């Protein structure tokens, strides 16, 4: 298959390297120092699942790539609308645009730009970041990628994507029956983990050891599940217990990408996380005081750094 990785950062570049190693044609869309390094030195992945190095075409102009079978869309959520407007050169009649991003609104925003028929839902469970320009570090997580057509159909293109990802070393590939459930299920966890580690400036271990903070962590998950169910997404009731148990076993020093961005002066994905919970809750008529509190604490930082 022919792939374009739109936003070849920690997640996108990891997938791009694994797909290239499996024999697929991959081109990277990136920018800045990372793009310069990809062009001059190639891409290196340092991974707990095995290192690799690949030399792939890299550009900041999708027009240099042309139509592909599949676009893996992995930009930060706050860049979704702007980046989606640049997708047209990559699209053929059946091209799939798979969003592996944080949040539950990206698919809608992409569809507004390219049409709903192109959009595929995706969920990434992987801890992978740009270690330095041209170098991606995969430090943990199952490297599990879940994906599916938004209407639940088993189209030829989703079967082809499933076959391609299933061939990749270092990738656990799962074709979902209902990807919307998966999107909201992960959303419940990431809003708690990201929101709480960023709001407290503490790792998960300190949150677990502080009764009030640990109760709040759980309530953030509960609220997101309630919003999902009120919005017509049948997230399983056991999701809350599963995520609390999962968080209980996490490395006590684990933070989140939102905490990293907050403490390193970067723009925040708050609008796609706890801010999105608040918006969806208002539409669904659900009270979410814990998510409102997280948003309120982080809002000055998010607004200050908004572009």
From TrEMBL:
Any Pfam family hit: ApbA
PANTHER family: 2-DEHYDROPANTOATE 2-REDUCTASE, PROBABLE 2-DEHYDROPANTOATE 2-REDUCTASE
Entry keywords, A to Z: Coenzyme A biosynthesis, NADP, Oxidoreductase
InterPro entries per record: 6-PGluconate_DH-like_C_sf, 6PGD_dom2, ApbA, KPA_reductase, KPR-Related, KPR_N, NAD(P)-bd_dom_sf
Record-given protein name: 2-dehydropantoate 2-reductase
Known EC number: 1.1.1.169
Domain of life: Archaea
Species of origin: Halalkalicoccus paucihalophilus
């Amino acid at each position: 298959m022919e792939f374009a990785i739109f936003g070849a950062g920690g997640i996108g570049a990891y997938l791009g390297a694994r797909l290239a190693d499996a024999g697929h044609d991959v081109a990277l869309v990136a920018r800045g120092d990372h793009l310069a390094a990809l062009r001059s030195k190639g891409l290196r992945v340092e991974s707990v699942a095995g290192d690799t190095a690949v030399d792939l075409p890299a550009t900041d102009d999708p027009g240099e790539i042309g139509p592909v079978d599949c676009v893996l869309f992995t930009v930060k959520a706050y860049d979704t609308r702007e980046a989606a407007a640049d997708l047209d050169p990559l699209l053929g009649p059946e091209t799939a645009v798979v969003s592996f991003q944080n949040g539950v609104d990206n698919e809608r925003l992409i569809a507004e730009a390219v049409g709903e028929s192109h959009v595929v839902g995706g969920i990434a469970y992987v801890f992978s970041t740009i270690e330095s320009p041209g170098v991606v570090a995969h430090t943990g997580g199952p490297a599990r990628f879940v994906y599916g057509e938004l209407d639940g159909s088993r189209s030829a293109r989703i079967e082809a994507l499933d076959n391609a990802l299933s061939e990749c070393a270092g990738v656990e590939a799962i074709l979902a029956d209902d990807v919307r459930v998966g999107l909201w299920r992960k959303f419940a966890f990431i809003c708690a983990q990201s929101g709480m580690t960023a709001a407290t400036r503490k790792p998960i271990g300190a949150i677990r050891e502080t009764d009030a903070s640990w109760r709040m962590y759980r309530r953030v998950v509960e609220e997101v599940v309630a919003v999902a169910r009120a919005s017509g997404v049948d997230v399983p009731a056991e999701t809350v217990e599963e995520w609390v148990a999962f968080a209980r076993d996490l490395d006590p020093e684990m933070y989140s990408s939102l905490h990293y961005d907050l403490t390193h002066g970067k723009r925040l994905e708050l609008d796609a996380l706890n801010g999105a919970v608040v918006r969806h809750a208002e539409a669904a008529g659900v009270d979410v005081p814990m998510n409102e509190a997280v948003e309120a604490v982080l809002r000055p930082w998010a607004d200050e750094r908004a572009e």
